[in-house]
Design goal:
Shape: globular
Number of strands: 6
Largest sheet: 2 strands, antiparallel
Strand content: 5-15%
Structural class: mainly alpha
Distance between the termini: 22 Å
Radius of gyration: 21 Å
Helix content: 55-70%
Number of helices: 13
Length: 321
């Protein structure tokens, strides 16, 4: 999230970096053969809300009406500010930085867990991160420290991104991460990024980012406490099945889908993921080659045929992209 201390601020649109975002998305599509639908939909939504082309400029509320402001949300019970503020950005660098991060995290998470599960997780993390930020701002009133945070205006998707980072780095094979050039244990990478961003970008919303980290931790603990399926996932799954049955009928006559990787059945039916023996990245069953290091699936039976240096380099590719 980026923050601001007043309502009258308007972001300047330079329209210079959005094409770079589009180029990066196109490059990932050419490399992988597909971009997961929920990830691409979120990127498109955030970008359209920022550019506001054609009639959308008149239909969509302005940024001044959706700033995340704890005081106004509590006073007016304003759910529009609570939810929509996450999808607005103050300028192009803010948008592009967040969407590049979403592309990287979304490809890994959505590919491994499936689109419906990923969509339900994003929705849950959105509500949890915004709620955590609201509670943190309200709690500061007890210490008579309300001015910097309780009256602060902020927008952006970074709270959800911090939560996704916590979930992504909770995997057993996530040992180390590179955070702005620093190699840190993955379980501390979100905290390190929180401090570094606040150090170099003082106007960033500290509470918004902290709320995202706490939301990610809470989500993981809730998932571990309840072994059953996520009710939101079941709801979204039923809705998607109802809408997609014509496509399933058309695809039933074909044994392949566009993009790299054989598809004879759905991801859930295929068992989910396979782990690259070199870089240990969990890949979708749809892919025939590792998404991170391009090692062909099933071609390596003995890791000793590669030098220790080459194995280390291929594993590090996961963190430097």
């Amino acid at each position: 999230m980026d923050s601001y201390g007043g309502v009258g601020w308007r972001g300047r649109v330079s329209r210079g970096m959005v094409p770079l975002l589009a180029l990066h998305v196109a490059n990932e599509y050419l490399r992988l053969g597909h971009i997961p639908p929920v990830t691409s939909g979120l990127i498109l939504t955030n970008t359209l809300l920022f550019l506001r082309p054609g009639p959308l400029h008149r239909l969509l509320p302005s940024i001044n009406r959706v700033w995340f402001n704890p005081h106004l949300i509590f006073k007016n019970r304003d759910l529009r500010r609570f939810f929509l503020s996450a999808f607005y950005h103050v300028n192009e660098p803010h948008l592009v930085y967040n969407m590049m991060s979403l592309l990287w995290k979304g490809i890994q998470l959505e590919t491994s867990m499936g689109s419906v599960e990923f969509a339900s997780m994003v929705a849950s993390l959105l509500a949890l991160s915004q709620g955590a930020t609201l509670i943190l701002a309200k709690s500061l009133l007890l210490f008579d420290y309300d001015a910097p945070y309780y009256s602060q205006f902020s927008v952006g998707f970074s709270g959800v991104l911090f939560a996704l980072k916590v979930v992504l780095n909770s995997r057993p094979d996530a040992d180390y991460s590179v955070v702005h050039g620093l190699v840190v244990p993955s379980k501390y990478s979100a905290w390190a990024e929180l401090l570094l961003i606040q150090l170099f970008v003082p106007d960033a919303s500290f509470l918004g980012h902290l709320g995202g980290i706490l939301a990610g931790i809470l989500y993981l603990r809730l998932r571990r406490s309840f072994s059953g399926p996520n009710p939101l996932t079941l709801l979204l799954g039923g809705f998607v099945k109802a809408l997609s049955w014509p496509l399933r009928f058309l695809r039933s006559s074909r044994g392949r889908l566009s993009g790299r990787g054989r598809v004879g059945r759905g991801l859930a039916d295929a068992g989910g993921v396979w782990r690259c023996p070199l870089c240990t990245f969990d890949n979708s069953e749809w892919l025939d080659a590792c998404e991170m290091c391009s090692t062909a699936r099933g071609t390596i039976n003995n890791r000793n045929q590669f030098s220790v240096f080459e194995v280390r380099q291929r594993r590090l590719q996961r963190f430097v992209r």
